[in-house]
Each structure stands twice: as structure tokens, then as C-alpha cells.
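Sanity check

After download, print the first record. It should look like this:
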Amino acid sequence: MAHAYTPGLKVTSRTRIRKERRLPLKGQVVAKITGKVSADTIVARTQLPGDVEPLNIGGLLGVPPEDVESYLLKHSGDSLKKGEIIAQSKGLFGLFKTAVTSPVDGVLESISKITGQAILRHPPTRVEINAYIDGVVAEIFENEGVAVETTGAFVQGIFGIGGETNGILKRVAKDPSVVLTPDDITDDLKGKVIIGGSLVTYETLQKAVKCGCKGIVVGGISDKDLKDFLGYEIGVAITGSERKGITVVVTEGFGPMNMAQRTFELLCANEGKKVSINGATQIRAGVLRPEVIIPLEEEIGEIKEEVRLKGVEAGSKVRIIREPHFGEIGKVTALPSELQLIETGAKVRVLEVELTGGKRVILPRANIEMIEE
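Expected C-alpha cells:
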């Protein structure tokens, strides 16, 4: 049977999910192999070295670099408090002494006899990484981190903002066409991940942050509202580092776009369950999609085989990613092997898609993305 290999979004009710949780540099792994962990469980920690700050002791004392050592009250490796004296001149008859004090809390790392300059290092920063999802520690990377696995529902989005978070899934939109308004956001949504409909507005995002919502999963968002919310124009760089107090996962695209019925129904079927979401997105130089992960508690520790993504074939569900049918969901009914002439004058491989309602359209294969069952 003819088939095509096409990248697509995963929307599946049960699959095997594996997340590697690694430290930015070597440290201590505190999780145990095969041990169950929750999303907030710390699995590894390390210390990031503090910034360095130069201090010209010789210049401040007015002495040659080679003589600086004789004026020191602190030496390499000693801890420092801000304002503490590091070096001091002998003065005249014990008077009129010049003192050099530490401008920061930290450590006196080194002193050069050639330049008379000291290097102070700020205190280290403690870094901890959590499991991100409820699951089981499947593998330990010595001094680096762990791999956490779970079985659960998995939904990928088109675009997102905000980093990793978790909360209880709560349906707010009554159907996929609903536009979320500030009135929909109530105080009882604190700590929740909201299931929206076709659009979330700037005012609604502001209200959600004020109420303490953890995240919003919605069909669409306007580029103007996004710019107003972030305070700047989003670029092509990776998102996910925004610190706006909420994570947003957009499942369909920009502007008012009904959330795909299957995605909406899958999320609503899991209302009340704990979910982990991440808005990090990268389109170029290695695709990274925002995601919603819903671990199935009854199957944690009983990892199932992952459903592998196959090529597009007759019967595959796909999303159209070009106009005039942008955002529509359909089923592939035919994959002609011969090249066909399209409106642009190019000859390309095409496929036939049956849209909701029964209408069939012929499209270039590059104009669709597969939706994994």
C-alpha cells in the first residue's frame, strides 16, 4: 500500500512516554532506579559556580603587585562577607590606614602577583531538577540525571509559551468553538490547567495569571494578544523561558481556531487528573513541540509498549497546514504515486483527503501533518 513519511503532531489516549532529566553540569542524582516519582520530586541537584568579580587590590592600596601579598588579611580560598576587609595598608605610624573591602559575599578565589588583582567569586547557585511527570525512574545517568517513564495520554501543540508546570486538568469551555473570556476565569481555578476552546484573549490571560492558574490549553491565540501579553514580538528562537506566571499550549494555530474535536474530547475525558505541560517551542534547528502529558495512575510502573509513528497511508488522520483548508482535520483516502500539476505550476506528489462532512480535496503532501492515533 502506498504511504508517505510526514511529520505530525501526536494526539493519543495512551502511549509510553520517556523524559530525560539532566543537570546542566555534573552533580548528585538523588532518585533511585525503578522508584516511583511525582512531577515535583527532586531527582538530581548540583551547584552552579557563582560569577567572578575582579578587584584591583594593588591599585587601591597604591602598592606594587608583588608586594600585595604582605598586605592581605584574607587569602585564597577564604570566604568573604560583603564589606569585610581583604587587605589593609600599614599607614603612617599606625594611622591613616587604607582598607580594601569585599564588594560581595563569596570566596577569595585567587590573587595575582603579576597584576595585583584578586578574583572574587559569588556564592554558587543551587540547581535542582524535578521529575516533571508522575512515573517511574527507568534509568540513571551517573552524576547527570535520570530518565522517567510513564504511560499516559499525550497531546502535542503547534505553539506555546512558558516552561514546565503541572496541575489538575479543568474543563472551562463547553465546546471547541468557545472563546475564553475573563468572566470564565474564577478563583476556584487556582492551580488548575484549563481546557479552552477556539481562542484565549490578552485580558483572559491576565485574569488567569491573577487567579493563579497553572496553564491553559486552547485552540488559538492572536499574535497581537500574544505580543501584548509578553510585552515584545515573539521571534523564531525557542520559547519556554518566559516568566509570565502561566504556561500556554496552543493546539491549532494563530487566530480563532476551534480545537480539534478529538483533542478536545481527549482532554475533557481526563478532566480532574493531574497533568504536566510545557510550552517550549522550537520550529527551526530541531523541532520542539509544546506538550500536555496526562499520566494514567493505574498504569504507572506497568510501562506499555509505545505506539510507533507510521507513515501516512489510506485511513490516516491528518491536519491540513496550508490555506484554503488550514486547520481542518481529515482522513486520507488515496495516495496517487504519480506526480500531479498544482496551481503554482509545479509537479508534486499529492494525496486525497476526506474532510468532515464528506468533501474530498486533493492536496500536496507537504500541506498536511499526520495526527498520531
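If your output differs, re-run the checksum step. Summary of this record's structure: The chain has a mean pLDDT of 88.
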